Amino acid sequence: MQENLPKFDSVFTIDCVIFGFDEGELKILLIERNEEPFKGWWALPGYYVEQEESIDHGAGRILYELTGLRDIYMEQLYTFGDVDRHPQGRVITVAYFAMIRLNGQKELKPVNTYARKAFWHPVNELPKLAYDHTKIFERSLEKIRRKISYQPIAFELLPEKFTLTQLQHLYELILNTKLDKRNFRKKMLNYGILKELDEKQRGVSYRAATLYKFDKRKYARLFQKELSFNK
Q1: Which end of the chain lies in a sparser environment, N or C, as judged by fewer CB atoms within 10 Å?
Q2: Domain range 153-222, its CATH number among 3.40.50.800, 2.10.109.10, 3.30.70.20, 1.10.10.10
Q3: How far is CA 56 from CA 9, 13, 203, in A?
Q4: Rounded to whole angstroms, how far apart are CA atoms 9 and 58?
Q5: DSSP string across 15-58
Q6: b or e along 168-205 (b: 16 or more beta carbons within 10 Å of the residue's beta carbon)?
Q7: CA geometry: angle 157, 144, 223, nearest 5 deg
Q8: Which pLDDT tens digits describe the chain residue by residue (231 residues)?
Q9: What class is the 12-147 domain?
Q10: Residues pairing with 93 in the sheet
């Protein structure tokens, strides 16, 4: 016999951790909150999931409403459920994360008054965030640092054509460590997932470097080795 179960309203939220790389800096997408609690604070884009929508659909909707960004592929990161994480009661949040290219074409414009504005903020100058969002950010960065050792996720942040110096700089920012230039380049080229182009940088005052592209097909077909830039 089927039991008559009570129908609950949604008591969980989604927070989006979106990383971008621009002008030599690793950045995180933040909003300025326009509602209590924490009105006027900086925070990750996040809000309540509607009762009749899936979690994945809710993540896309919330990111769009608070930042104006659409069609961003996000992965689930972790569920945060500390009993005191929300000042108004027990609220569980599911964090999603993504890494995207910043090419000046992704305009940030909230369509919901819950966010006063959205903006990209350098990771190395992160202020104190609302709720436990600093903890969520730190967990996301740890995830990326682990993942970058076995998947070429850093290429999602770079322009389609890049130099090896740009690639190394990005890895150093993510890993927060200095890498040996010679060893880094040797390892990257030995993996065979970079395609050297018959092109060089333009508009630079120094000696122009050769440009490369990430070969997704070759990676999918041949990549089996673990990338390790700390060895």
Answers
A1: N
A2: 1.10.10.10
A3: 18, 12, 42
A4: 15
A5: EEEEEEEETTEEEEEEEEE-SSSSTT-EE-SEEEPPTTS-HHHH
A6: bbbbebbbeeebeeeebbebbeeeebbeeeeeebeeee
A7: 75
A8: 445 544 445 578 999 999 999 878 999 999 999 999 999 999 999 999 998 899 999 999 999 999 999 999 999 999 998 888 888 788 899 999 999 988 765 679 999 999 999 999 999 999 999 999 999 999 999 999 998 888 888 888 998 999 999 999 999 999 999 999 999 999 889 888 899 999 988 877 678 899 999 988 877 776 555 455 555
A9: alpha beta
A10: 13, 80
Angstrom distance (rounded) from CA 114 to CA 160 = 35
d(CA 131, CA 154): 28
Nearest to 231 by CA among 148, 144, 149: 149
Place of tokens 């500390």: 82
Token couple for 129:
């965030």
Collapsed DSSP state (helix, strand, coil) of residue 60: helix
Separation of CA 106 from chain center = 14
